[in-house]
Design brief:
CATH topology of chain B: Aminopeptidase
Largest sheet of chain A: 2 strands, antiparallel
CATH class of chain B: Alpha Beta
Oligomer: heterodimer
Radius of gyration of chain A: 15 Å
Shape of chain B: globular
Strand content of chain B: 25-35%
Number of helices of chain A: 2
Structural class of chain B: alpha+beta
Largest sheet of chain B: 9 strands, mixed
Number of domains of chain A: 1
Helix content of chain A: 40-55%
Largest interface: A-B, 15 and 15 residues
Strand content of chain A: 15-25%
Chain lengths: 64, 205
Amino acid sequence: MTLNLTEAEMEALERLCKQKDLSKTAVIRQALKLYQMVDVRLAQGDSLFFEDKEKKNKAELMVL
Amino acid sequence: MREESAVLIKERATGRLVEATLIDGITRVEVEEAEEQWRPVMAQRIEDLRARQAPRSKWPEHGHWDWRKKHAATQGLLAYRMLGLRSDGRMQGLMLVVTAGHACRIAEQKNKEMVYVDYVATAPWNSPSVVEEPQYGMVGRVLIAAAIQLSLDEGFKGRLGLHSLPQAEEFYRKQCAMTDLGADEKKQNLRYFEMTIAQAAEFLR
């Protein structure tokens, strides 16, 4: 398959490849695995939160 | 997805290497069969220890793990892989790994992706904490090698992490030569071990 990405998306992908020491394919596969896991857990009624330990803030991530 | 490959484990009584099949993607039926074979051996051991009033530190630490529940909870999720090691018509070991969402902690590979070993166990008849004369050796070693191979396949270059039960710490520290990063208060104070790319390469040599 061919994956068409905008310039900004390609930049984000390349940045992640560098940060994570992964190929583009590996980053896309990681993204798919995490997206599927989050989607299944949300469908089961779970919630996803980001927590700032210093400020003790907790924000729920809404995945549409 | 299911893949099978031939590996070798050691028959302890004779010291000879025997063939085993490493299965990536074991089925629910295989997990149920393993549980049915493992549970009575484990239950008998716990009964014996209870009768002898042995301290809890001597009890097998993973006796309560329910592999059926773990299989059901992760089936179909791309991030999870359950592997089994079969020989002599029985499952000799099981392992559940996660290939997404876990970041390395060692400075030289901090925040890089890795394979996290969620659960790994040898069959009770292979465990010195359960039987006096374990039947097969190298089961844990073969499963850790399989986890490293998964890490290589995923592009993580062998990076691996896990939290160890106290009875298994020596195995990860000495036999796997993983780095011990100490007790993790977020994970029941279990010690966290991590394998670098170099340690993984050395382990596979």
